C-alpha cells in the first residue's frame, strides 16, 4: 500500500525590514542617546575658552614681569648726579631711589619709570602698551605690580639688594594669574 503524497506546507517568506513601530522606537532611543552626548560636547566646548583666558592672562603677567626685571636697580634716582658712582644710598648726591614712582614718574609719559622700584603700586585697568595705547581685545584685563625687599640666598631682606616682584593679572570669567620673580642688585651703578 502506498501512502498518499501530501502536499508540502507553503513556506512563508522571511520577514524583511522593520515594522513601523520598531522604526519609531529606534528613532526615539537614538535621539535620546544623541541628546546626552551632544550635551556633554556642548559643556566641554563652553569651558574650552577658559584655558585661552588663562593663557592670555599669563602672557600679560610674563610681559609685565619681564619689563620690570629689565629696569635698572640703582641706589640713586636716574637724575641724581652720582647715579653712576654711588655704591650705597649714602653716595647719592640728593635723590635716593625709593619705593614707588618719584617726581610724577609714570610708566608711559615723561618722566618715565627709570628703576625697578618705580613699579611698586603700579596698576592698569585695561592693558596698555608702553606708549599708553590700549591693546585691542585686552580691555577686560587688569594688572598690578608690587615690589618689596626680600631675602635671597645669602642676601638679607634688610640690605635692600634683592627684590621680590609680584605681578597680578585679573581677567574675564574670574581669571587670575599671580607671577613672581626676583631682581638682585648685581650692577648698582648701571643707570641704563
Question: Which short descriptors sum up this protein?
Answer:
alpha+beta, 2 helices, rod-shaped, single chain, 192 residues, 4 strands
Describe the protein.
With 192 residues, the protein is of the alpha+beta class. The chain has helices at 20-47, 49-69, and strands at 123-125, 142-149, 162-171, 175-184. It has one domain. It has two helices and four strands; from the N terminus they run ααββββ. The chain has a four-stranded antiparallel β-sheet. It is rod-shaped. The protein starts with 19 loop residues before the first helix and ends in an 8-residue tail after the last strand. The mean pLDDT is 85.
Provide the fold topology.
Blueprint: H1 20-47, H2 49-69, E1 123-125, E2 142-149, E3 162-171, E4 175-184
Antiparallel strand pairs: 1-2, 2-3, 3-4
Amino acid at each position: 500500500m502506498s501512502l498518499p503524497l501530501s502536499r508540502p506546507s507553503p513556506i512563508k517568506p522571511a520577514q524583511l525590514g522593520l515594522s513601523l513601530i520598531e522604526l519609531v522606537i529606534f528613532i526615539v532611543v537614538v535621539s535620546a542617546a544623541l541628546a546626552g552626548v551632544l550635551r556633554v560636547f556642548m559643556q566641554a566646548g563652553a569651558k574650552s575658552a577658559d584655558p585661552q583666558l588663562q593663557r592670555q592672562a599669563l602672557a600679560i603677567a610674563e610681559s609685565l614681569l619681564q619689563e620690570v626685571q629689565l629696569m635698572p636697580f640703582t641706589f640713586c634716582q636716574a637724575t641724581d648726579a652720582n647715579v653712576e658712582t654711588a655704591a650705597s644710598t649714602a653716595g647719592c648726591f640728593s635723590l635716593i631711589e625709593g619705593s614707588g614712582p618719584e617726581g610724577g614718574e609714570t610708566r608711559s609719559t615723561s618722566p618715565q619709570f627709570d628703576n625697578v622700584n618705580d613699579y611698586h603700586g603700579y596698576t592698569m585697568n585695561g592693558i596698555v602698551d608702553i606708549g599708553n595705547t590700549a591693546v585691542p581685545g585686552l580691555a577686560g584685563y587688569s594688572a598690578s605690580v608690587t615690589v618689596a625687599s626680600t631675602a635671597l640666598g645669602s642676601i638679607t631682606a634688610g640690605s635692600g639688594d634683592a627684590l621680590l616682584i609680584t605681578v597680578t593679572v585679573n581677567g574675564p570669567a574670574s581669571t587670575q594669574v599671580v607671577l613672581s620673580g626676583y631682581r638682585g642688585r648685581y650692577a648698582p651703578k648701571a643707570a641704563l
